[in-house]
Amino acid sequence: MRFHLALTLQALWAGVCQAAMQHYPAAWGHYDVCKSQVYSDEGLTWDYMACQPEAADMTQYLKVTLDPPNITCGDPPETYCALENPYMCNNECDATTDELAHPPELMFDTEGRNPTTFWQSTSWKKYPKALLVNITLSWNKTIELTDDIVLTFESGRPEQMVLEKSLDYGRSWQPYQFYATDCLDAFTMEPKTVQDLTQHTLLDIICTEDYSRGYVWKNDKTVRFEIKDRFALFAGPRLHNMASLYGQLDTTKNLRDFFTITDLRIRLLRPATGATMVDENNLSRYFYAISDIKVQGRCKCNLHANSCVYDKEKLSCECEHNTTGPDCGRCKKSYQGRAWSAGSYLPIPKGTANTCIPSNIGPVIRQNVSSLGVANRKEECNCNPFGSVSDRCNGTGFCICKEGTTGPKCQQCLPGYLWDDGCKSRVCDNELLRCQNGGVCVNNVRCSCTSDYSGLLCENHRCESELGGCGGPDSGQAPLTPPSLPGLLLLLLLGPALLRDASCWPALL
Ligand SMILES: *[C@@H]1O[C@H](CO)[C@@H](O)[C@H](O)[C@H]1NC(C)=O
Ligand SMILES: *[C@@H]1O[C@H](CO)[C@@H](O)[C@H](O)[C@H]1NC(C)=O
Ligand SMILES: *[C@@H]1O[C@H](CO)[C@@H](O)[C@H](O)[C@H]1NC(C)=O
Ligand SMILES: *[C@@H]1O[C@H](CO)[C@@H](O)[C@H](O)[C@H]1NC(C)=O
Ligand SMILES: *[C@@H]1O[C@H](CO)[C@@H](O)[C@H](O)[C@H]1NC(C)=O
Ligand SMILES: *[C@@H]1O[C@H](CO)[C@@H](O)[C@H](O)[C@H]1NC(C)=O
Ligand SMILES: *[C@@H]1O[C@H](CO)[C@@H](O)[C@H](O)[C@H]1NC(C)=O
Ligand SMILES: [Ca+2]
């Protein structure tokens, strides 16, 4: 008989919380508990599960940087005209007066009823030189986005803008989405909307005209990056099947990384003008003003923590399962009995903890096995040839198991893996993870594709013949950045060779 005592534990954790630290609430739901006590035949023992912190408003924990640094209005004081009326020029910005200042913090404060508080840039005095502003949000911590990013503009939505992300603390950047009144003109990209995306083009970077078209900014001030619509491609329209999404996230690193960030950057390239012509006599009508930025997410703790603390201006996971590091990304010092691995969402709903195990269990057994092994070493090992790296021991009496495999002879699979000449992660089934394009799911671990297709789920059309023979105009495949001229030249030069070996659709999975 097993009784779960997770409630007691929650109380225990609550007691551990220090007043100086801000804890996210650990509400009940999927993956909110890292361990629970159970009564079994051996007495009171622990059960370990995959766990993650609750999603929270991440704007409370970021650092904002503006480039250029002096782009905020008010130094020197300036007077603005309303965009819709050039004769209404009684809006003042003065950095030295609290009521008239518009510092960056006002993008992250709590909006009361009225009046809205907003950050505002200087006006477009240097027209026709572009009015460029970068707003960088840094967490110094990996974050997993759980909801749409929403920006609210108070002076009309920008006519051109790029949202970028970094996964390496700002060292490198990738676009997330392009926004323009005219995508072709601004970025030489076909306009698309998130509704055009499918499971296979989900990671495509698109340019959208949805958030800047027309002069209706009075009614809709928001610009979004649609996380939920993307989730819905796996989890269904009302996200009722999160299990399917979690299953996908577990097995698909690209997908997981797509929603993971350490920094965001909003590149404002052209303010709202409300007209095709810029009124050069009244440039104080053109500026950027943002009243609110929403970023919902959770600390990435590799499924080894259900709580993340903000202490001394720093976010970090409260690691369980004997892991450590800001993201619980390694085993604690004396718990390196096996290689670290992230927890797994599978099997749903409790996942697999993949705890770190004590290092000192190793040497004791090793001594005994090796003293036996001196006389009779090879037979003594007999490691499973499929599950282990080699059928021989590693010299001290241990079989070295391949990924996903466990047991003294590497003959068993870790949860989430299935045996098929070794342990393979679950790739396909006949429900949510269907093989595409006529492929057949074999033992849940691979798709057997028809001759025209390749890829994990047979999602890639093979292109044996001429350039452009695959995909077609709306195949929806855009590389992370619009194709560059050197890249196109390279493709033309190497094209036939590349196309013979690789498919022309970049693999999603
Ligand atoms: C910001 O500073 C740069 C040089 O430091 C200067 O050229 C620019 O005019 C300043 N911009 C504003 C709006 O004051
Ligand atoms: C903003 O970031 C881009 C790179 O993403 C950079 O080229 C540019 O110089 C930065 N600063 C401004 C003011 O645009
Ligand atoms: C970021 O976090 C690391 C520790 O995780 C710390 O050493 C570093 O100083 C932080 N950087 C900034 C800019 O806060
Ligand atoms: C420009 O704005 C000023 C107020 O700053 C206003 O007096 C003037 O009439 C406007 N000019 C035009 C051409 O609209
Ligand atoms: C981790 O280490 C502690 C002692 O430091 C132990 O009580 C606990 O059971 C260990 N195992 C896991 C999976 O947390
Ligand atoms: C190792 O062998 C010794 C005696 O040879 C024994 O006392 C000890 O319990 C063994 N340890 C393990 C972990 O089997
Ligand atoms: C053999 O494997 C064990 C367990 O993983 C490890 O502790 C030991 O260092 C390995 N020995 C050699 C010689 O690689
Ligand atoms: Ca505000």
TrEMBL record:
Domain EGF-like as annotated: residue spans: 424-459
Domain Laminin EGF-like residues, every copy: 381-425
Membrane topology of the entry: Lipid-anchor; GPI-anchor
Main location: membrane
UniProt-listed InterPro entries: EGF (IPR000742), Laminin/Netrin_ECM (IPR050440), Laminin_N (IPR008211), LE_dom (IPR002049)
A biological-process GO annotation: axonogenesis
Cellular-component GO terms for this entry: plasma membrane; side of membrane
Keyword terms of this UniProt record: Cell membrane, Developmental protein, Differentiation, Disulfide bond, EGF-like domain, Glycoprotein, GPI-anchor, Laminin EGF-like domain, Lipoprotein, Membrane, Neurogenesis, Repeat, Signal
Gene3D superfamilies from the UniProt entry: Galactose-binding domain-like, Laminin
SUPFAM superfamilies found in the cross-reference section: EGF/Laminin (SSF57196)
Intrachain S-S bonds: C381-C393, C401-C410, C449-C458
Record carries keyword NADP: no
Signal peptide residues on this chain, from the entry's feature table: 1-19
Residue stretches making up the Laminin N-terminal domain: 47-298
Cell location: Cell membrane
Residue ranges crossing the lipid bilayer per the database entry: none
Protein role: Involved in controlling patterning and neuronal circuit formation at the laminar, cellular, subcellular and synaptic levels. Promotes neurite outgrowth of both axons and dendrites.
Protein name (record): Netrin-G1
Organism of derivation: Gasterosteus aculeatus aculeatus
